[in-house]
Amino acid sequence: MSPIPRRSLLKAAAVAGAAAQFSWALGSRDAQAAPTAGAADTDPVTLDWLEDGGLGAAPGSTVGVPWPMGAFREDQTFALTDADGKAVPVQTWPLAYWPDGSLKWTAHAVSSGNGKLTLTAGTPAAPEKKVSVDHGGGTVTVSTGVITAKIGRYGSTLVKSVTRGSTEIARNGRLVLIRQPEIEDGDQGAVKTERFDGAIDKVTVEQDGPVRAVVRIDGKHRKGDRSWLPFSIRLYFYAGADSFRMVHTLTYDGTQEPGKASGDFIRGLGVRFSVPMRDAAYDRHIRIGGEGTGLLREAVQGITGLRRDPGAAVQEAQYEGRKLPDPSTWDQRVTTRLQYIPHWGDYTLSQLSADGFTVRKRTKAGHGWITAGGGRRASGFGYVGGASGGFSFGLRDFWEKFPAQLDIRGAHTDEAEVTLWLWSPEAQPMDLRFYHDGMGQDTYAEQLEGLNITYEDYEPGFGTPYGIARTSELLFWANDSTPAADTLARQVQAVRTLPQLAAPPRQLIKAKVFGPGLYSEPDRSTPAKAKIEDHLDFLFTYYKDQVEMRRWYGFWDYGDIMHTYDSARHVWRYDIGGYAWDNSELSPDLWLWYAYLRSGRADIFRFAEAMTRHTGEVDVYHIGQWAGLGTRHGVQHYADSAKQQRIANTTYRRFYYFLTADERVGDLMAANVDSDETFLVLDPQRKVRTDPYTPDRHALSIGFGTDWSGLVSAWLTEWERKGPKWEKAKARVLSTMEGIAAQPNGFVQGSGLYDLDTGKFAVATEPVVGVSHLSAVFGLNELCAELIYLVDMPKFKDAYLDYCRYFNASKTEQAARYGSNFGSLILFQGHSRLDAYAAVQTGDAKLAKRAWDKFYNSDGYKESAPWRTERLTGPATLVEGSEAAWVSSNDTALYGLAAIENLALLGDKMP
């Protein structure tokens, strides 16, 4: 199929209207898509697994692949072959389009294939066993060709049954919530709890095969007249798989007020299934995952270790999970006394910290528990069933997102019950109350004084968890018999590390996605380049190690890093206002993702993945008055009163979505399309304004840096995805680009008045210099590089390159160009990447020289820094480890991005 035309017109709306001190008239013009870079490149792409082992026991994998502009029309089909040249069934759909209408990103779902896979244009092979979806009656029935799941459309049962062949393996899949209405801080009082059940409001089939089917279930937890704690569940099914995946999202909408003991405290949060038990007690098996691929391997009625020996073959068969010979063939001293051997029906593994789990069991309710083992970090995997079939289950990031728990109940009865607790009911209740009483900070002036001592921007009532969310991932297998040990090990591995296909860095670079020219593969060909590569490796390794040493784990915390180090105490400033959790400050998300894009390293991908899951969910409000806004860095992820769009920035989510086609992250990006409305709700500059300001939907003050970069990222993504509001989003991308370009000082103007109804900036009549060191450090450079490539708008390009040219210029140069200098600025090293970008765009050798000069000789990390850690031991520290007291997360993110981009743009012009 031939490539589509190289250029197509993007009609930009005229910026028009009127305001008292502003001129809105810009006139209309066409903005054209940038041309494709040379001939369409349609070479095959080799896809590989991030980790060894391929697909393993996982149901399937989905990968995003980018294509150069103009390479393929939107109706192109794709074929896949494995390392042996065998055709692999693949399901393909578009994720994003270039402005000319050609495919920018495509998603590809597979459920088979060995080793590396090769993707080419062509006709896809059909799966031998297709996924089918039937919408009939009160259920949605999904069949993979191996298992069939019946999904409820209403009521509290999400998954009515899971069958394999004619055998029902599991049923009555549901959500459970335990609410504790009061927390007692003392050692007296009675703990009361109440249980809520998940209730379905809506079921949507998002995909229906042939390789992949996705069913979304939305609802709330209910008891009586009360409904709260919204959930969104996605179930993923793949052709020929005996398993399915669940992505579980919870949004907190309860009430917890500081200083009050009563509130909506979550005591337990879980996913529960019932499992029919058909086999004799001695043929029923329990498997509980321990450390690594370790397993507790037991039977409900054990016949090993008895005073009388049934026979070595019988003992081995039970341990291996095979059906035992008829008891009449055993040593009759055992057979005649079977009724005296206990039946162990209940098992629990609880992981209440990142450093320890315990396993216990009992015969049945009302009888005492006995310890069955323990360890440090459990895999989050379990199995219950027998020779005639059983149910495997697992919770990803089990110990990382403690407190978690696995329960098996009633395995000695006709129906066992398994519960995967995302929040263990044995842990303390989920206490999300704000951590202090305000300390008298009742006025803006007092709050600014507080900011000046603890770096926390406090405001009464703002430190609320209402509207934050958390996403968890679970896997389930319907086995036709108790799996062998090696099969169980593969299932454990799939739970711990979900197999992920990936396109190689060279394909990402060739396709010019995420900013053409901003990243290149690691290059150690010269000593100077090798030294920077060493520094980048050092920083990533240090943070990975700090996550472990400092135990940056927990249900709400895992995925984030800390902001600043306290060298006196040898700890990160976890309890000091804005120096605690980082919450995407100065874009560590971008640093990690660009580090992955250029290297393809699995460890960097997993770190960035965890951060994306965290920052997109926990640091952002999804419902309530601040929906669409995120929270600035602080002691709690929602504590600070700075609720801003820059933290909810779609820029940070785009990478994971396009690389994996993850629907939940897609939801987060779509939710930001109308986030310009949030500027009516809350003025981010309310505490520092000197002039009166009341938000006006026709004249909202929006900054061209941190504000606009977040907004335009959401609009650009919606436009690329052709989402429901893509035409509106496209218009806003183009009109705001024109509006900024038309300002007397372009980006240097700093901000403009924005009309929510027209999506346009008013053009100021007077030039103003309004430059902040923060304007470009939340993804502006990366976004502008994309926009300049996508949209042929010379005046916008000139305005941005002017900003790049003058931020790091001397005050004399700034004043000569704009009439006044930019004042006292910082973060010059991080801004060296703007110099580098402008140098390449303009061919200015002096800018190229300045880029490296600012990188090496301004602020941030210098070559003279230690570039090593120091060993920490007791009594100086709680846990032995290492520290690099000179490292801060702000400097790390800025150095990382500047190093990556400068090497890519100006690696051939290093001093």
How is this structure best summarized?
By secondary structure, this protein is an alpha+beta fold. Helix content is about 25%, strand content about 25%.
Q: What does this protein look like?
A:
The protein has 911 residues and is an alpha+beta fold. The strands form 9 sheets. The protein has a 20-stranded antiparallel β-sheet that branches. Strands 7-10-5-31 form a 4-stranded antiparallel β-sheet, with no helix packed on it.
Tell me the structural class.
alpha+beta
Q: What proportion of the residues is helical, as a percent range?
A: 25-40%
**Number of beta strands:** 42
Radius of gyration (CA) equals 29 Å
Average pLDDT number: 94
The span between the termini is 46 Å
Tell me what portion of residues adopts beta-strand conformation.
Answer: 25-35%
Overall geometry comes to globular
Q: Unreliable runs, pLDDT <50, ≥5 residues?
A: 1-39
For this structure, the quaternary state is single chain
Number of helices: 19
Described by strand count, sense and barrel closure, the largest sheet is: 20 strands, antiparallel
Structural key phrases:
alpha+beta, 19 helices, 25% helix, 911 residues
Write the layout of secondary structure elements.
Elements: E1 9-12, E2 18-19, E3 22-23, E4 29-33, E5 45-49, E6 61-66, E7 78-81, E8 91-97, E9 103-110, E10 117-121, E11 132-134, E12 139-143, E13 147-152, E14 159-164, E15 167-182, E16 194-208, E17 212-223, E18 226-238, E19 243-251, E20 262-276, E21 284-289, E22 295-299, H1 312-320, H2 332-335, E23 346-353, E24 356-362, E25 370-375, E26 381-386, E27 389-395, E28 404-409, E29 415-423, H3 444-454, E30 469-479, H4 485-496, E31 501-502, H5 505-511, H6 527-549, E32 565-566, E33 571-572, H7 588-599, H8 602-617, E34 630-631, E35 643-644, H9 651-660, H10 663-670, H11 678-681, E36 700-703, H12 706-721, H13 726-742, E37 751-755, E38 760-761, E39 763-764, H14 780-790, E40 791-792, H15 794-807, H16 811-818, H17 828-842, H18 845-857, E41 870-872, E42 881-883, H19 889-906
Antiparallel strand pairs: 1-4, 2-3, 3-39, 4-40, 5-10, 5-31, 6-9, 7-10, 8-9, 11-12, 12-13, 13-14, 14-15, 15-16, 15-20, 16-17, 17-18, 18-19, 19-30, 20-29, 21-22, 21-26, 23-24, 23-28, 24-25, 26-27, 27-30, 28-29, 32-33, 34-35, 36-37, 37-38, 41-42
Helix pairs in contact: 5-7, 6-19, 7-8, 7-19, 9-10, 12-13, 13-15, 15-17, 17-18, 17-19, 18-19
